[in-house]
């Protein structure tokens, strides 16, 4: 097999659909999109050294001194999301608000997008906003970098576990080849893994693990073809 880095997920999904690609790494929403147009299946996901788990959560945080302890306390406040396409910085927390009966467009006095999780941590720490969204693993990193003091912060809301990005294969690959591929991934240990530092190992996953992403897309009435 030969590996390469693609410019976008849509091209990867099309290559999988057309049979020009056998194995690929996709984002959670991109995988769910991919299953609707290509015969693909998740089989492995990363367990990183930072978290020692293969999932993460989205948080909404505020300063304790603000008195904000629950979602209802956010009414009329300012809230920072990360980016419109961010899974943990926008999509999951927005769905969580909608499930709680809140219309984010009307509930807050102002909603803004900062562009990064670290910027959200700083926005709360510096009192530029009343609350902000952030991935739990990035919150932990922000604490380590002293961007924010955990003793001063209140977690107002947290999502259910969000599965990490999956490695997928085409379903119609021969079973013996699938077995070899899975064995190769399961034997990978202690390698550098993008912004997550070191990868402990790969663990097995399956398509059903991403049903929470499908449910979130339905709540948000998302057109998955526009997700990356």
Characterize the structure shown.
- There is one protein chain.
- This protein is α+β, with helices and mostly antiparallel strands and 228 residues long.
- The chain has 2 domains: 9-53 and 163-226, D-Maltodextrin-Binding Protein, domain 2, CATH 3.40.190; 58-158, Periplasmic binding protein-like II (D-Maltodextrin-Binding Protein, domain 2), CATH 3.40.190.
- It is 34% helix and 25% strand.
- The protein has helices at 9-18, 28-37, 87-99, 104-107, 117-125, 136-144, 175-186, 211-220, and strands at residues 23-25, 40-48, 55-56, 58-63, 78-81, 110-113, 131-135, 153-158, 162-163, 166-170, 189-192, 198-204.
- A 5-stranded antiparallel β-sheet has the order 1-10-2-12-11.
- A hairpin with a 5-residue loop joins strand 11 and strand 12.
- Helix 1 (9-18) packs parallel to helix 2 and helix 3 crosses helix 8 (211-220).
- The protein is globular.
- The protein starts with 8 loop residues before the first helix and ends in an 8-residue tail after the last helix.
- The model has no long low-confidence stretch (mean pLDDT 90).
């Amino acid at each position: 097999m030969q590996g390469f880095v693609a410019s976008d997920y849509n091209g990867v999904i099309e290559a999988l659909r057309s049979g020009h690609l056998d194995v690929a790494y996709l984002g959670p929403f991109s995988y769910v999109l991919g299953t609707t147009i290509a015969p693909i299946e998740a089989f492995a996901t990363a367990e990183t050294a930072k978290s020692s788990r293969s999932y993460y959560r989205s948080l909404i945080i505020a300063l304790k001194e603000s008195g904000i302890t629950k979602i209802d306390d956010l009414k009329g406040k300012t809230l920072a999301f990360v980016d419109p396409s961010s899974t943990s910085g926008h999509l999951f927390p927005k769905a969580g608000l909608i499930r709680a009966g809140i219309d984010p467009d009307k509930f807050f006095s102002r909603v803004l997008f900062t562009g990064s999780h670290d910027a959200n941590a700083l926005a709360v720490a510096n009192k530029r906003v009343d609350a902000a969204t952030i991935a739990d693993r990035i919150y932990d990193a922000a604490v380590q970098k002293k961007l924010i003091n955990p003793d001063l912060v209140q977690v107002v809301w947290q999502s259910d576990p969000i599965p990490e990005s999956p490695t997928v294969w085409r379903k119609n690959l021969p079973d013996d080849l699938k077995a070899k591929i899975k064995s190769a991934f399961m034997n990978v240990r202690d390698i550098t893994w993008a912004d997550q530092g070191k990868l402990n190992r790969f663990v097995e996953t399956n398509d059903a693990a991403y049903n929470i992403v499908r449910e979130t897309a339905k709540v948000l009435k998302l057109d998955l073809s526009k997700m990356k």
